[in-house]
Amino acid sequence: MPSLPPSLRNILIRATNWIGDAIMTLPAVRSIRQNYPEARITVLAQPWVADIFAADLHVDRVILYEKKGRHRGIGGMLRLARELAPQRFDGVILLQNAFEAALIARLAGIPVIAGYSRDGRRPLLTHPVKLSDEIRRVHQVHYYQNIVRQLGLTPGPDKLYLPLAETEQRWAREFVAELPRPLVGINPGAAYGPAKRWPAERYGELAARLAEESGGSVLVFGTAQDGEAVAVIRGACPAVIDLTGRTTLSQAMALIARLDLFVTNDSGLMHVAAAAATPLVAIFGSTSAVETGPFADRVMVVQKDFPCIPCLKPECSTDFRCMLEIGVGEVLAGVHRLRGKAR
Predict the structure, then answer these.
(1) What is the largest CA-CA distance in the chain?
(2) DSSP string covering 192-255
(3) Are strands 91-94 and 61-64 parallel, antiparallel or unpaired?
(4) Cα(234)–Cα(93) distance, rounded to whole angstroms?
(5) Which residues lie closer than 8 Å to 256 by C-beta, 6 or more apart?
(6) Less crowded by CB within 10 Å, the N or C end of the chain?
(7) pLDDT score at 274
(8) Which pLDDT does position 288 carry in this prediction?
């Protein structure tokens, strides 16, 4: 496999499409910058993950791939390629795995195209990276750093970081300034599907017990689609502060960075908390905590040991016991252990 040319000066990075995946690529983005300190680095990202890269000092610019808008369908993909072509990128590193990512790069006339050789895109790559069975089983942070390593570059530290603009940090400071502490966040959603969601009734009971025990504030994070879950949680704990659908991703990230504790399903915001080094309890069902768990030190993972785990299905086709057998007391015990209050 040929190494990337050291002469690259105008580099495009194709971002992944999910918030959690994008967070887990950040060490690789930093590694690319460290290997090309003088290059202009642009990230091509879908709008819902663009905030992750907008304040990153390792990135010079973000271009939006509006796949659900102006770049929709085959015609939109061709339009995007035509928009990229005049930028005269001399190389692209595909952190996103799809065939489409390589095709757009080829249509844009980018001479160096590097990424994992998968999804039928090998003929489109000039610098294919072999995807071994071993790499498939490691944590995703290592999975993306392996691209850097196999391209002949020197990987930087496998440590997450959370890029935040000063405006969002100031907004978050002001938002929480008058709230009683400790500040506890809960996240009942998960975009992947219901198999990753602990029941809202249990989040409600947990919120009520946390508020009663600590006397602090409980903030609920998520999107507008989590409204039904929030209604259930508020029924058990009316004092929760509902932030679902009421913040930008940047604002949510800045708030999570200021929390004393975060309790969450396996989700994008879980990885935000890990990157912010916010102590967190992560509730896992159908997915693998080895491959996509929170990549941080102050973490408690709650997951049952059943033969069907990880099934990686968005919806459970049997009895959902991987989540239903996780009780509130078990999650609360994780909270206590994390906060040094083992009971």
Answers:
(1) 62
(2) T-GGG---HHHHHHHHHHHHHHH--EEEE---GGGHHHHHHHHHH-TT-EE-TTSS-HHHHHHH
(3) unpaired
(4) 45
(5) 185, 221, 262, 269, 272, 273, 276, 278
(6) C
(7) 97
(8) 86
Q: Do 339 and 184 meet the contact criterion of CB atoms below 8 Å apart?
A: no
**What's the order of all strands across the beta sheet hosting 261-265?**
241-242, 217-220, 183-187, 261-265, 280-283, 299-302
pLDDT score, position 343? 35
CA distance 240 to 185: 10
CA atoms of 264 and 229, how far apart (whole Å): 13
Task: Evaluate whether 96 touches 12 at the Cβ level (below 8 Å).
Answer: no
- Give the model's pLDDT for residue 314: 72
pLDDT for res 231: 95
| 127-129 sheet: strands from edge to edge | 61-64, 40-45, 10-14, 91-94, 113-116, 127-129
pLDDT value for 342? 41
- Nearest to residue 110, comparing CAs of 137, 92, 128, 133? 92
Give me the residues of the chain with pLDDT under 70, please. 1, 341-343
How long a stretch of residues is the chain? 343
Q: Using an 8 Å Cβ cutoff, are 114 and 129 in contact?
A: yes
- What pLDDT is attached to residue 1? 64
pTM of the model: 0.94
Cα dihedral 127→133→134→139 (10° resolution): 80
* Structural contact between residues 82 and 71, judged by C-beta atoms closer than 8 angstroms: no
Residue whose pair of structure tokens reads 């009520």 in the numeric block: 208
Give 45's strand partners. Answer: 64
Q: By the 8 A CB rule, do 275 and 249 touch?
A: no
What is the rounded distance in angstroms from the CA atom of residue 24 to the CA atom of residue 84?
25
Cα–Cα dist 204/233, whole Å: 4
Q: Is 314 exposed, middle or buried (0-12, 13-18, 19+ CB in 10 A)?
A: middle
Nearest to 56, CA basis, from 65, 45, 66: 45
Rounded to 5°, angle at Cα 320 from 314 and 326: 110
